[in-house]
Design goal:
This protein is mainly α. The chain is about 45% helix and about 0% strand.
Length: about 70
Amino acid sequence: MCGLEPEKMKAVTDGLETADTLTLVRKPRLTEKHKGGRIWNEGKPEDRCMVNWIEADYEEGSMDPTDCAEALSD
């Protein structure tokens, strides 16, 4: 996933851009054309899980897993 747009991903993980700029986030939200259709809506647990994971500090305990657990339980 990080190889799709490495420069943008680095900017997001460095806190210089938001995850909304990534194709990995735009396509599932259908804010950019996606052959597979909408995967999730912005603000739903699945979306928050992905965005929080991308924007996390990568330090153990820095990310609240609640949204991911909720998304996986559906």
